[in-house]
Amino acid sequence: MSDEMQEILNDFLTESNEMLEVLDQRFVTLESDPNNTDLLNEIFRAMHSMKGSAGFLGFNHLVDVAHRGENILNKLRQAEMAVNPAIISVILETIDVIKAIMADIRESGTDNHVATAAIASKLDDIINGTVSTAAPAAAPKVEAAAPVQETPALPPPTLGEILVNEGLASKDQVLDALNAQQHQPDPKTPLGEILLQAKAITERALDQALHKQEKQPKPAEEDATIRVETKRLDSVMNLVGELVLGRNRLIKIGTQLEQNHEADPQVRVLSETLAQLNLVTTDLQLAVMKTRMLPIKKVFAKLPRMVRDLSQKLNKQVHLEMRGEETELDKSVADEIGDPLVHLVRNAIDHGIETPAERQAKGKQAGGQLTIAASQEGNSIVIRINDDGRGIQVEKIKAKALAKGLISEAELATMEHREVLNLIFLPGFSTAEQVTDVSGRGVGMDVVRTNIRKINGSVDLESEPGKGSQVIIKLPLTIAIIQALMVEVERSIFAIPLSTVIEAVLISRSDIKTINGREVLHLRDRVLPLIRLAQEFDIPTDKERERFYVVVAALGDRRVGVVVDELRSQEEVVIKSIWDYLETIKGVSGATITGEGKVVLILDTSELVQNAQAWHNSGMAV
Question: Is 70 a catalytic site residue?
Fold first, then answer.
C-alpha cells in the first residue's frame, strides 16, 4: 500500500472510531427520546458517511453491514418504523460488529475475518418487519449538562439592505442598481457610486449607510484545527520536561553566581536573561499541557451503552446522569482512568442498585439513580460516582476481612467507619455471594486502586446502608510535571509531591511519643503515626538529632508524619519512571533530576500513608 493510501486509511479508521464512540451514546439517548428527529438525522448522517468512506476503500463487508443499518435508520427517520428497545438492541449489536471489523482492518488491512451473516440476518428481519418488538427492561435515561444551543451567526447586512431598512432608498432602486452593477465594464464598481450616479440617493444618505455598515460586528472566523498523533505530543512533552530540568539547573547556577559576583554587570544581565527564560519555559509548558487536554466526555462516552446493557441483563432499571462532561484532563490520565471507571460503574449496578421489586419493598422508586460527576478542584480532577442503592454493609465487610485473614480483630477494633469501608480495596477482597460474569471474582477493586495510584491519584469510598454509596476519585491534571517539596535525610534528598503535603512543623525529640513500640506525634488533638525515611530506606544515621522537621502528608482524611532532617526547597520536578530498575522498592513513585544535577527519588505518599496507618492500627491494638 502506498504512503498516501496508508494515510487515507489511518484517517478513515480514526474518524470512524470517533463516530462509533459517539453513536453508542446517541443510540441510548434515542431510546429514551424516540421522537428526537434531529438526533435520528445526526445518527443517519454518521452511518452514511462511514459507509461511503468504506466503499471508497473497498471494504465491502463493512459497507454491507452499514448499508443495512442505514436502511433501518432511514425508515426510523421517515416514521415508517417506530423506535423501540428491540430495534435499538439490534442496531447496537451492529455497532459492535462494525467495531470488530474496524479492529480487523487495523490489524490485517482487510475486513474479511469478521462473520457478518448473523447480524445481517437480524437487520433484514427488522427491515422485513419480522423481528419481535417485545421491549426488554427499561433503558437507562441519560442526562448530561444541557449543551448550549449556539445560534448561527447571521451575516452582517449589506449596504443595499441598510439603505432599504433605513428608508434611504427603495427596494426597486437598489435592485436596479445591483442589476446595473452586473453590466458595468468594471463589475467591482461600488453599489453606492451607482446609486449616486442614478441620483437614487444623496451623498449624505450614502455616508449615513456606510457609517452604519462599519459599526456592524464582523463574523467570527471559524476555528482551524489539525489532527496530531499522541506520540508526537508525548515527544514534545518529554522535550519540555528536559527543558524544565535544564531551566532549574541554570537558575541554580545563576543564583550561586549572583551571590558570589553580585557587582559583576554580566552576572546581572545573566540573571535578567534567566528570568526571561524561566517565564518563557513556564508559558511553553502550560501551552503544551493544554494541547494534551481533552474533555472527560471522551471517557464517559462508553458508559451509557454499558449501563443500558448491564441493567437489562440484571433486570434492573437504572437512571444514569452524567455531569461535568466538559471538564478537561490530560490524555495520559484519561487513558488510565477508563478501565477503573468502568469497573466502579459495573459494581454500582451489580452490588449497589437493587431490583425494582426490592426497591419498591423498601419504599424507593423502582428505577435506581446512578450519577457520575466530574469537576476541577484546584490542581485536581475529582470524579464522584453516586448510587442510591443498598449501600455497603460494614458488618459484612468486617466478617469477610476476618474470614480471609486480611486483618485481625484487634486492628478492626481501632478502625474508623471509612477505614473499614476501604478494606474492599485490599487484594482478593469480595463480598459477592456467587461468582458471575459481571463481578464477584475477588479481583478488580484492588486493581482499581493500583491503577489510580499509578497516575498519582487517590480513591476513597463513602456509604450509608440503605441509602447508597459514593466513590470519590481524585486525579492530577497531568502526571508529567509536578510541584514537589524537597527534603533532606542524612544528606540524601527526597521529593514529596506538594499536592499531598498539609504542613511542615519543627519539633524536638521530646515531642515524639511511643505507643507500644510505634512512634507517634500528638499534633492539634490528632495522633499522627510517624515514618522515619532513614529507617524506611535503610540510610545509615550518624547521630540522633535533637530537632527535626515533620512533614504532614495526607491521603483522603488519613494523615502521616514524615520525619526529615531539613526542608530544602519547593521545586517543579519532572517525573521519570523507574519501575524497570527499582520495581521492588516500596514507597517510591519515580525519580527526577534536581537543579544541582542530582537524581532524587519521588516518594509515593499514598503508599507511605497506608503502611503507616496499618502500623499505627496494629500498634494501638497490641
Answer: yes
The active-site residue out of 248, 347, 422, 617 is 347
Q: How many residues does the chain have?
A: 622
Give the count of beta carbons closer than 10 Å to the beta carbon of residue 207. Answer: 11
φ, ψ of residue 488 to 5 degrees: the values are -120, 135
3-class DSSP state for residue 570? strand
- Nearest alpha carbon to residue 533 among 505, 590, 579, 491: 491
Share of the chain above pLDDT 70, in %: 85
The residue written with cell numbers 446609486 in the block is 195
24 pLDDT higher than 50: yes
**pLDDT over 60 (residue 614):** no
Q: Tell me if residue 48 is catalytic.
A: yes
HEC string for 269-284: HHHHHHHHHHHHHHHH
Q: Are 568 and 562 in contact (CB under 8 A)?
A: no
Candidate list 15, 17, 42, 48, residue with the active-site label: 48
Q: Where are the alpha helices (DSSP H) in 292-371?
A: 297-300, 303-313, 331-347, 356-361
Report DSSP state, residue 190.
-
Three-state SS for 410? helix
β pairing state of 526-532 and 558-564: parallel
Separation in Å, CA 433 to CA 403, 441, 449: 14, 10, 22
Known active-site residue 272: no
Strands (E), 179-224: none
CA 501 to chain centre: 24
426 grid coordinates? 485490599
Would the pLDDT of 621 be above 50?
A: no
Computed over every residue of the chain, the mean pLDDT equals 80
Q: Give Cβ neighbours of residue 226 (< 8 Å, ≥ 6 apart).
A: none
Measured distance CA(518)–CA(621) in Å, rounded: 11
DSSP for 457-526, please give it.
Answer: -EEEEEEETTTEEEEEEEEES-SSEEEEEEEEETTEEEEEEGGGEEEEEEEEGGGEEEETTEEEEEETTE
| Domains observed in the chain | 3-149 (1.20.120.160), 159-215 (no CATH), 230-291 (1.10.287), 300-476 (3.30.565.10), 481-621 (2.40.50.180)
Highest mean predicted confidence (pLDDT) among 415-419, 457-461, 541-545: 457-461
- CA atoms of 577 and 584, how far apart (whole Å): 13
Mean pLDDT of the region 416-439: 66
Per-residue pLDDT at 616 exceeds 60: no
Encode burial over 513-549: b for 16+ CB neighbours within 10 A, e otherwise: eeeeebbbbebeeeebbbbbbbebbeeeeeeeeeebb
Helix H or strand E segment including 370:
strand 368-377
| DSSP annotation of 422 | G
- Of the candidates 31, 61, 70, 456, the residue annotated as catalytic is 70
In this prediction, residue 203 has a pLDDT band, given cuts at 50, 70 and 90, of confident
